[in-house]
Amino acid sequence: MVWGCADQGGHSSAAQVLVAGGGIGGMAAGIACARQGHTVRVFEQYGVLGDVGAGVQLGPNATRILQSWGLLEALTPLASQPENLVVRSVSTGRILATLPLGATAAKRYGAPYLCVHRADLHRVLADSLSQMADVSIRVGRSVVELDDTEEEGVCMRVGDDPPVQGDVLVGADGLWSLTRQALLSDGAPQPTGHVAYRAMVSMADLAPALRDQNVTVWLGPHVHVVQYPVRAGESMNVVVAAQAPFSGVAQWWDNATPAFEVKNALGNTCKALADMIASVPDERGIDHPDAWLAWQLFERPPVAGPDEMARRRVALLGDAAHPMFPYLAQGAGMAIEDAQALGRALSMHALNVPQQLRHYALNRWERNAFVQQRAKRNGDIFHADGFKRVGRDLAMWAMGAKLLDQPWLYGYEAGTSLLAK
Q: 16-79+113-188+300-383: which CATH number, 3.50.50.60, 1.10.3720.10, 3.90.550.10, 3.40.190.10?
């Protein structure tokens, strides 16, 4: 095969960057690379560009990067900036701990803590990328084969199209990444036994007492609930995460689920939480924005080394590299951090492309592995029962904000210590 790559060994200042996946991670990767002057081609497998799901929390570690890209001005009016993180008991409603967010978090970490609908975040990223020079975005194109064994570049096939050539391939194609399988051949992610039930409720449809503008986490045995406002406070995102059997389609998030299944997973709840759950309409069908949707959670072991994030001219990013439990609210954050690190690595023009990607992987794998581990540990803490649950509640009551704050996470800057404050 004649590759004809522009790089000719990787020392050109501008690279042809191919991005497999047009979700949040793929858009962020495209922006970070285009900002360094590279040509970017994004290939999204679905026929319509967009993102699925519901709400996403963006800690200051992520919003600080978006701020540096000039995107906060467009994103902030679409988001909510909660004043507090409040932890409560599922059964009694008692407040266990509170962490100030809002102006306090913005001052401490130099960027806000935001809650946003995934589609709004994706639209801001996609609009920004589409306006940048030397960028193309194609939909209905999924990676079916790749070859990066040649010195001069990487080649991939997308659908039935002729092979696409470039200097770098970024696998940002999510949990079921075809790029990962072509690169690592390590099989499918495994089910965790956890299910997330998601719903979006109009704030106007909630009773006044339920129109909370905080991030509230409700903790119960083998289950927890997270609720927070999105879309400038006009909607409430509600997620019930439970260790429960899953009856839907194995791989996909959009399984319409009746409310009684969610209530069964929750068990006995206090009145405030019961009222919130009851506010989600039942049996409206998948096309109704207020229907409950069930999503089985999958995982991979934490990243074990740099070779699991990049090899030769192929780099993995976001869920393709390090899928994680959502119990630290860092799936999108880690993908955005990856993107920034990738863009910086590809600006190191004294190195060839494989060396640049090795630098990227060395800079990211330990951070991502640590976050994966902490997210899983949070699930054990959130879902504790018996004496462990009593000890958790006492620790939260005694330590409060000190226990909830995460300076090692929110204060992180690329190139600093893993535990940077």
A: 3.50.50.60
